[in-house]
Amino acid sequence: MMSLYKKEYIVVDLETTGLSPNNGDEIIEIGVTEIKDDKIKLNYSRLIKPRGFISSTITNITSITNEMVSDAASIEDVLPKFREYIGERTLIAHNAKFDVKFLNHYLDKMDLEPITDYICTMEMLKKNKNYNGKNKKLATACDYYGIINEQAHRADSDTLATAKLFLAIRDEI
């Protein structure tokens, strides 16, 4: 098993236009929180302009509107820099399979190196015998551990909550 004690991690969360990049769904926001030496550092997000439109359903979940992304950079501009930024660091995400699936779909389209080194906090919860939350959703886990997620379903807020969750449960498993 991969070590849960490294010097540096990049916590990532994506907001997307749907559930499957293979069906043409796109990334509309990338959020990042850095963990260095067990301390939360940089936290930010970047909106991305999709080729298609953001549905009202997605806007209701994420609060991201078509107007908000109208002047944002494209995925082709953002993702190569993002991949370089991650480098060899371990990525952390809640339900990492979802985020990694999207990232690797678009990385593959651009002939960029896929992400293979990642930790999923949802999987960590499944292994944590001390966790008694009613499900493994981020909101439920945050409530259970007393972590406040100021703006759920916005990438910067979700990565900050996931970073705090990772640090809270790492020692329990």
Q: Could you please describe the fold and organization of this structure?
A:
The protein is an alpha/beta fold. 39% of the residues lie in helices and 20% in strands. It is built from seven helices and five strands. It has helices at 56-62, 66-69, 75-86, 96-109, 121-127, 138-145, 155-169; strands spanning 8-16, 27-36, 39-47, 90-93, 118-120. It has a five-stranded mixed β-sheet with strand order 3-2-1-4-5. Strand 2 and strand 3 (39-47) form a beta hairpin. Helix 6 (138-145) packs across helix 7 (155-169). The protein is globular, with a radius of gyration of 16 Å. The termini are close together. The mean pLDDT is 95.
Provide the structure class: alpha/beta
Largest sheet properties = 5 strands, mixed
Mean pLDDT: 95
Q: Secondary-structure element sequence?
A: EEEHHHEHEHHH
Uncertain runs are none
Question: What secondary-structure arrangement, pairings included, does this model have?
Answer:
Layout lengths: L7 E9 L10 E10 L2 E9 L8 H7 L3 H4 L5 H12 L3 E4 L2 H14 L8 E3 H7 L10 H8 L9 H15 L4
Parallel strand pairs: 1-4, 4-5
Antiparallel strand pairs: 1-2, 2-3
Helix pairs in contact: 6-7
Offer a concise description of the structure.
With 173 residues, the protein is of the alpha/beta class. The chain is built from seven helices and five strands; from the N terminus they run E-E-E-H-H-H-E-H-E-H-H-H. The chain has helices spanning 56-62, 66-69, 75-86, 96-109, 121-127, 138-145, 155-169; strands at residues 8-16, 27-36, 39-47, 90-93, 118-120.
